[in-house]
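[job 4471] stage=fold_predict status=RUNNING
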Amino acid sequence: MANQASLNETNNKFCVPNTDVERQASLEIDEEKEFDYTQRSQWLRAAVLGANDGLVSTASLMMGVGAVKEDVKVMILTGFAGLVAGACSMAIGEFVSVYSQLDIEVAQKKRDLAMKIKNGETEEETQEENLPNPIQAASASALAFSVGAMVPLLAASFIKEYNVRVGVLAVAVSLALLVFGAVGAVMGKAPVTRSCLRVLIGGWLAMAVTFGLTKLIGSSALYEG
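[job 4471] inference complete, writing C-alpha cells
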C-alpha cells in the first residue's frame, strides 16, 4: 500500500491535471468566440467587392477592346480609364449606400431610446462605434478597386504581341481572383475553396462574355464599314 501511494504521488508530480488542460482549452475557445467576425463584414464586403470588381471589370474591358483593336496603347488607355472611372463610381456608390444605412440605424436607435425613456428605463447613449462608417466603406472600396484594376494593367503593359498579351492577362487575372477569394474567406472565416471557385468562375464568365460580345459586334461593325 505504501509503495502504491508513493507511485501515485510520483505520477501526480509529472502529470498536468485534467482540470488545468480543460480550463486552458476553454479560455482559448472563449477568446476565439469573443471576436465577432461580423464586425468585419462592412469593410470586408466593400474591400472584397471593390477588388474583385476592379480586377474583373478592368480585365474584361481591356480584353473586350483588345478583341477589336489589338494595339497595346489602346488597351492600356482603356484599362486606365476603367480604373479611374470605376474607383470613383465605387467610392460614391458605397458612400451613398452606407450613409443611407447609417441614417436608418441612427433613426432606429433614437426610436428605441425614446421608447425606453417613455417606459421609465435608464437612458442609454447611442453606441457610435457599432454604426456603419460611410467614409471607411467608400475608401476601402475605391482603394480595393484600384488595387484589383492594377493587376491587368501591369500584366499587359509590357507585352506587344497580342496573343501573348491576352494569355498573360488571363493567367494573371485568374491567379489574382484566387488570391482575392482566399483572402476574403480567411479574413471572414469562410470556406476557402468554395470562395475561390466562386470568384474564379464568375470572373471567367465575365471576361468570356465581354470578349465574345465585343468581338462579335466589333467585327460586324468593321465589316460593314
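[job 4471] summary: The CA atoms of residues 38 and 188 lie 8 Å apart.
[job 4471] exit 0
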